[in-house]
Amino acid sequence: MANTPYPESYYAASANAVPPRPALQDDVETDVCVIGAGYTGLSSALFLLENGFRVTVLEAAKVGFGASGRNGGQIVNSYSRDIDVIERSVGPKQAQLLGQMAFEGGRIIRERVAKYNIQCDLKDGGVFAALTAKQMDHLESQKRLWERFGHTQLELLDQRRIREVVACDQYVGGMLDMSGGHIHPLNLALGEAAAVESLGGSIYEQSPAVRIERGANPVVHTPQGKVRAKFIIVAGNAYLGNLVPELAAKSMPCGTQVITTEPLGDELAKALLPQDYCVEDCNYLLDYYRLTGDKRLIFGGGVVYGARDPANIEAIIRPKMLKAFPQLKDVKIDYAWTGNFLLTLSRLPQVGRLGDNIYYSQGCSGHGVTYTHLAGKVLAEALRGQAERFDAFADLPHYPFPGGQLLRTPFAALGAWYYGLRDKFGM
């Protein structure tokens, strides 16, 4: 079978050394078969192993191959739609439960890093940067909203204060979240995978799930083997394909593009981001950036609907970087790549169960780093019979994209064009 390597990226080039993992080549019996070795699958596996389950993880390529190993590396709290939007949709009781969970993912990441000694360049502090007075008003109301749910590590930044944390004159203000932060995302995934194995879990790479035999004792088939399990967790997200057809109709893979500069040196890096916080702006089609452990700037933005790989990523993203930091005009770009995330129409995650024993979580809609770690805990709780938090997610309403899979990309692109105009004119 063909060996799928990591796509070229700064993360793959700077990944911690790990031994290759074997492909599944025989029949295995386990309590839980997890499909996908990204954050959702690894988080689920870790929580299950810590609670005494036998766990087997199947990965089509390599650990962290998908969004988990290619994202901007930012720890951003809450969901892609904030708690007030959820409250209007589902009412105060369910929103209260989801609101209490909105800041848990970042705590789980920090606990994992500390407990399993994961080397992933973890840094505290994330900034939401406002480009307009309207965006600043939104941040003020967001701060009040988050504080209502007990989240207090927040500071509003006026124009003078935001200049102290980011050397960019576009911003009128912002909000600092000290429970936000950033990591080397692939190294976080690799560290979590090592933790899974340290607890007796098995991870098979180059072992795509090609068919699920449903029933009282479901079986997951790979090209050269199969796994019999009591439960299955489907955690393939944007890389699931059509393995579970009922999940494909309500979501759409989208691509985001990222570039990484050459090392900037201590002086220039400190001039750009003196406290080493990560930053994202408040536009609907947002830009995000941060420094790496070796003082490069990682800059990402833009969305490609339907997850095509654009021909020249640097041509798309470099102008955005230079708009924020014209002082980087002579700096070389060493890496450029794209990765897919899964968008839902509501922009809220889809969590649920098929039959009695197939569980799934997908569709983080760009807020995956923290949510996926929470999802693993919530899925593990549900398998242990504690379903209240699982049900709070499972009861969120979800809708198929209008026009089905054929028309979902043009519809979403049209929506993005509209929101892009709103960003441009500050509406």
Automatic annotation (TrEMBL):
<dbReference type="Pfam" id="PF01266">
    <property type="entry name" value="DAO"/>
</dbReference>
<dbReference type="GO" id="GO:0016491">
    <property type="term" value="F:oxidoreductase activity"/>
</dbReference>
<keyword id="KW-0560">Oxidoreductase</keyword>
<feature type="domain" description="FAD dependent oxidoreductase">
    <location>
        <begin position="31"/>
        <end position="381"/>
    </location>
</feature>
<dbReference type="GO" id="GO:0005737">
    <property type="term" value="C:cytoplasm"/>
</dbReference>
<dbReference type="InterPro" id="IPR036188">
    <property type="entry name" value="FAD/NAD-bd_sf"/>
</dbReference>
<protein>
    <submittedName>
        <fullName>Gamma-glutamylputrescine oxidoreductase</fullName>
    </submittedName>
</protein>
<dbReference type="InterPro" id="IPR006076">
    <property type="entry name" value="FAD-dep_OxRdtase"/>
</dbReference>
